[in-house]
Design a protein that fits this description.
heterodimer, A: mainly alpha, MetI-like fold, 2 domains, two-stranded antiparallel ribbon, about 0% strand, B: SH3 type barrels, six-stranded antiparallel beta sheet, two-stranded antiparallel sheet, elongated
Chain lengths: ~350, ~350
């Protein structure tokens, strides 16, 4: 029996409602792309096929040039200017004064003796935060990845559960926890239920520092777990089979097979999380606002406050501080690139 | 039955093998993880449906209870209902008119003329589980929430479209053409990974102001549109597309632009989809840059708007919680649908803004 065209038309309605937005979008795209083609076709005739590559690169490189490369170059000059004006032409050149202000301390280990005590406080706060946030997060991500790598039922489900907070915006994450940690919040309800006293978590410096670290581990752990899990799953199972024939126990297998082969992924995760951790800002900004006092004020917030939030903006100083942070990030990234290359070669 | 047999019964699994003690520890860890990861979000969801009165209650209840009210003749506002133990020991359902010190003045809804005085410890609220949809509806009318939502949707969709188009154009050039300076440009693009926005905040703000994009959504959209990760991901994917397809299209007389969008783009679908998901996530959740560029309330994105609400001296938690739920809803829905795709996508590319 042959299928007539009428049958086919009946079986497939011209456009269903579900396909409508896609169809419209497709038509618009065709129209736009066709119009671009009309413009570019003569261009191609003039410059030839090969040089069309520059045309394709143009929009991307324009944005890179204007919003990344030029600002980066300007940053160096900007950090050597003073005054409260925004535009470079209105600012006077002050040489390395901004750096001198930043680094002028009687004792660099004591922020109180520094000209710019907030900067040094921010640096030490950030160092403390990075150490414990990265340390704690990588540790728990490792444990979670190892557990998920066992023959666990519903692995996909658990993997998604741990990953879910990664997708939430920092503002949302901060508000979720602010609500839990507030004076009349559910955590204090649990504590008083167990016979304890209410704790002002976000007003006590020690607790605020703890929760800021805890919340950012909570929010980011799933991402690193996922990469570590992928690293574990790329270890060939034959190695474990060969090991069990040789009579190795679980701990020995972990020590001599898993750990060495996991190392490259582990280092990548470590450096990636370091780079992110140094730039901590939004979650903390919403959760504690840097407080109480300056207990949770970190380096990006120092830059933001100095350049934008304070009544008298000191943008040259902020640019100098951002260059200092950029230097730290550069070192971390170079380590990562190096490790990435060695792990690819391995 | 000995304890040993009980143990073996409990740990027997379907395929006959026994659960090892480490398996049990693993499952306990994972279930605690589920509570820790989902618990706070579920608590937010529950709280967002509570009335203002229920929100300040301590200790809080899990479910959103609301006090029942009743319309009583002679009173403009609906009155709250209480279960009351009267002096003679009988129970009655009364509506409270007002509270004076430790005494409540109450009426029987059936005979509203007679005021009954009751000590406040002799009465108990009558409450039912009720969702306070008002938390969701009222901010839509009273605040700029819909404007913030509109701005976020505009920024997210426009920025993602631009990112997809220009990144794929650059990737096409870098993967399918031999031209002078190709490798240098590629290295330059990858090198910009070293320059996160937090390092160049001040000069980018200067550039934006010079262009006149201060307090303009374009100022939020454009600077981050040329993502090095996107170019890299798409280039790697396009390298796997055979060059013969392009040669054949050229013989058929197709222009280079036509080859790009009718031959290469359709074949890059999976990589484009991964980049699209990430771009949506980056843009929807972006905070620091919009916070700097946008200072006029009617231009705020959701994240900046939410932050400004919670910064009020008196946080109106009943509104803030509901709006937080609305803000995390789109991402949650996308994740629920695409979670397998997203998690494998990240595991293979290692992308995160």
């Amino acid at each position: 029996m042959s299928e007539t065209s009428a049958d086919r038309a009946a079986a497939r309605p011209p456009i269903s409602l579900k396909e409508l937005p896609g169809t419209i979008l497709g038509a618009v795209m065709t129209l736009i792309m066709g119009a671009v083609d009309l413009v570019l076709d003569p261009v191609q005739r003039v410059i030839g096929i090969k040089r069309m590559a520059y045309i394709f690169l143009l929009p991307n490189m324009l944005i890179f040039g204007i919003f990344v490369l030029t600002p980066m170059a300007m940053n160096f000059y900007y950090s050597m200017t003073g005054g409260t004006e925004l535009f470079l032409s209105d600012r006077q050149f002050v040489g390395l004064d901004n750096f001198r202000i930043l680094f002028d301390c009687e004792n660099h280990l004591q922020p109180d003796t520094c000209d710019e005590d907030l900067f040094w406080r921010a640096i030490y706060n950030t160092a403390f935060f990075v150490t414990f946030q990265v340390g704690g997060m990588v540790l728990f991500a490792m444990i979670t990845a190892l557990i998920l790598n066992r023959g666990i039922k519903g692995r996909g489900f658990f993997r998604s559960v741990f990953f879910y907070p990664v997708l939430l915006s920092p503002v949302v994450v901060a508000l979720i926890w602010k609500w839990i940690l507030q004076r009349e919040g559910v955590l204090n309800a649990i504590i008083t239920g167990l016979g304890g006293e209410k704790i002002l978590f976000l007003l006590d410096p020690k607790w605020a520092i703890f929760w800021v670290i805890f919340v950012s581990i909570w929010a980011q752990m799933g991402f690193h777990t996922l990469i570590l899990l992928a690293g574990l799953q790329s270890i060939p199972p034959e190695l474990y089979e060969a090991g069990s024939i040789d009579g190795t126990n679980r701990w020995q297998a972990f020590q001599h097979i898993t750990l060495p082969l996991w190392m490259p992924t582990l280092f990548v995760v470590l450096v990636l999380s370091l780079i992110r951790s140094v730039q901590v800002f939004d979650q903390v900004f919403v959760l504690t606002g840097g407080g109480p006092g300056t207990a949770t004020q970190y380096i990006v917030q120092y830059i933001y406050d100095t350049a934008f939030a304070n009544q008298i903006p000191r943008r040259g100083l902020a640019a100098a501080a951002s260059l200092v942070m950029g230097g730290v990030l550069l070192v971390l990234t170079l380590i990562q690139l190096r490790l990435g290359r060695t792990s690819e070669a391995a | 039955m000995t304890m040993d047999q009980v143990g073996s019964f409990l740990t027997r699994t379907r395929d006959g093998s026994r659960l090892h003690i480490t398996d049990i520890i693993s499952y306990i860890y994972l279930f605690l993880g589920v509570i820790l990861m989902f618990g706070p979000v579920i608590w937010l969801l529950m709280s967002s449906f509570k009335t203002q009165a229920a929100l300040i209650e301590f200790p809080p209840k899990f479910l959103p209870y609301a006090q029942q009210t009743v319309e009583v003749e002679g009173y403009d506002e609906p009155l709250p209902l209480y279960q009351v133990t009267l002096e003679d020991g009988t129970q009655a359902t009364l509506a409270q008119v007002r509270r004076v010190g430790i005494e409540a003045q109450m009426v029987d809804p059936e005979s509203p003329d007679e005021i009954i005085k009751v000590p406040i410890d002799q009465r108990e609220q009558i409450r039912t589980v009720e969702l306070a949809w008002n938390n969701y509806i009222e901010p839509l009318e009273r605040f700029n929430f819909l404007t913030y939502l509109k701005n976020s949707v505009i920024v997210t969709t426009v920025a993602t479209l631009i990112t997809l188009v220009i990144n794929s154009m650059a990737a096409f050039a870098l993967s399918k053409y031999q031209f002078r300076g190709r490798d240098a440009i590629f290295v330059l693009i990858i090198a910009t990974l070293l320059i996160p926005i937090s390092v160049i905040l001040v000069p980018v703000f200067l550039v934006i102001t010079q262009i006149g994009w201060n307090n303009n959504l374009w100022g939020v959209i454009i600077p981050g549109a040329a993502t090095p990760t996107g170019v890299f991901l798409l280039r790697q994917y396009m390298l796997t597309i055979p060059d013969e397809l392009i040669a054949a299209a050229r013989i058929d007389g197709a222009s280079e632009w036509r080859i790009y969008w009718q031959v290469i783009l359709p074949l890059t679908g999976p990589a484009l989809a991964v980049l699209a998901i990430f771009s949506v996530m980056w843009r929807w959740n972006d905070f620091l840059w919009p916070l700097i560029v946008l200072s006029r309330n009617e231009l705020f994105t959701l994240q900046v708007g939410l932050n400004s609400f919670q910064g009020d001296l008196q946080i109106q938690w009943h509104f803030v919680l509901a709006m937080t739920v609305l803000t995390l809803l789109p991402i949650t829905i996308v994740f629920a649908i695409l979670q397998r795709f997203i998690t494998t996508g990240i595991a293979t590319t290692g992308m995160k803004g």
